[in-house]
Amino acid sequence: MVSAIEDYALIGDxxxxxxxxxxxxxxxxxxxxxxSEACFAALLxxxxxxxxxxxxxxxxxxxxxxxxxxLILETHFETEHGAAxxxxxxxxxxxxxxxVRFVVGKRGKVAMRTELILRFGYGGVVPWVTRIESGALxxxxxxxxxxxxxxxxxxxxxLTTIGEFTxxxxxxxxxxxxxxxxxxxxxxxxxxxxxxxxxxxxxxEWAAKCRPAGRWTExxxxxVLTLKALTYLPTGGIVAAPTTSLPERIGGQRNWDYxxxxxxxxxxxxxxxxxxxxxxxxxAWREWLLRAVAGSPDQLQIxxxxxxxxxxxxxxxxxxxxxEKSAPVRIGNAAHTQLQLxxxxxxxxxxxxxxxxxxxxNESGWAIQLEFLKHLKTIWRQRDQGIWEMRGPPQHFTYSxxxxxxxxxxxxxxxxxxxxxxxxxxxxxxxxxICDEVCARGFDKKRNTFVQAYDSDQLDxxxxxxxxxxxxxxxxxxxxGTVAAIEQRLLRDGFVMRYSTEHVEDALPPGEGAFLAxxxxxVDAYILQERxxxxxxxxxxxxxxxxxxxxxxxxxDPGQKRLVGNFPQAFSHLALINSAYNLTRPRKPVHQRAQxxxxxxxxxxxxxx
Length: 609
Known about the structure:
Blueprint: E1 8-12, E2 17-21, E3 25-30, E4 38-40, E5 51-56, E6 61-66, E7 73-78, E8 82-89, E9 98-117, H1 120-123, E10 128-131, E11 137-141, E12 144-149, E13 154-156, E14 161-168, E15 172-181, H2 192-207, H3 217-229, E16 231-232, E17 237-238, E18 261-262, H4 266-276, H5 279-293, E19 303-304, E20 315-316, E21 330-331, H6 342-356, H7 366-379, H8 398-418, H9 424-441, E22 443-444, E23 449-450, H10 477-489, E24 491-492, E25 495-496, E26 514-515, H11 516-528, H12 532-543, E27 555-557, E28 562-564, H13 570-584, H14 589-593
């Protein structure tokens, strides 16, 4: 039986990641990159589609944790006859991507077993398994090769590799699994003990740079560690999640591939990294963005691959039944071809905030930004698919127009603040024209609220960002009316829905969980309204949704009281970080993005606190 989404933990090496259940099974791993084909796909099917179990042979009480300030997972098993701890991690910057698993005896003796089912090609390809001269087990299929080194005796049974052993107090038994292209000689194994020490040192030193967030410091640290784990180190791109097709509603069809990098996250990613003290990561993200969007402005995409790849063709792995039979399982994401006007605003805002933060020379990337603005001038009146990538008919989404306003607003501010050349007078006119249209067509005077799209009576959680991006101040009665309307119509058991899937045509059956980032946006809106008690109360509820090792998925199902959607979700953790700093720091990310005159920019190399 598949585990609940909240029963998974993450390990990774900043190039790939694996999900580990509470009972010691690795059920998901794409090797050697986040977007590679999975070799363990039990998460979206059955154990026969690939997993690696290391667990006691008898019933056990299970507790687990990450070693403090690391991505090293410890799963502790207590049985009738003894206790043992399973230590799981992926060494950082190993020559070949590697998973190391230690079984450590803690008390008495524990009978253990391992069950390895390697299935390349998203669970569809059975490899040829042999033993090589070194004693390692080797599995090969097409371009992929995996080697397993362990002192445990392993044998094959029904296309499964099995091992049984007993661990006594004070003993340690290692497993080292390595990926390599199949045409290369088998790589030498990593020394597991040295790898453990080096990996722990790296993560602890990296986490130590995190700036405090008052009582929420530990939650912020776990979130920044998670975001780091979702970063593809060679390029600086950050995947939205390491998984595909975990459903937004159990049994539903809202299942998407999130192993790519979304531009909609760009500004919040930059601000979150800078406020947490990670300027190197913020710079790497900015540089990834500059390379990814380089080219003709009319070919700008809403998302890219981790290396900046553009062709993310969507197809269905129909041999996988899906998580808890939530089909289809999608590989790739067709939304990459959509027009979404908000990404122009994200790009301009990201570069403006990078200049304010001293991350880049003032003129860096300005030439391509000028070309984007020329193109936006010609298309901002068009309908688009909106921030949520709806697959229904295009509309004049209010938030899309607001972000078109942001694009020209940040162009004006960059030019005036940093002495950059551009048609500032034209930008002023366009900014005013967009503002007037949004306030006339995107605002429902009768209901005193902004609406999801022109000529619509529906709401959208993205409207909570109107004061946060500086379009209107939080004190504006129209903003107050919008927040009140969202509280009345989009809250489900106290959590914010993106929009009403029952009343909006998005080409899919209705029903999904509460998108967690949207609830954090309500926290930030409360802060801008100086409703600090409401903000604190909601933030506490959101932090309490994290699983036992501090991870959040994309959404939460209040009815079933469980996490849903792809996991762990970068956007959820990013929103947590920004809201925590909004609650605890005098210089708040939300004020900085809103261009609040009382929020001076962060220095380029701010001292650690």
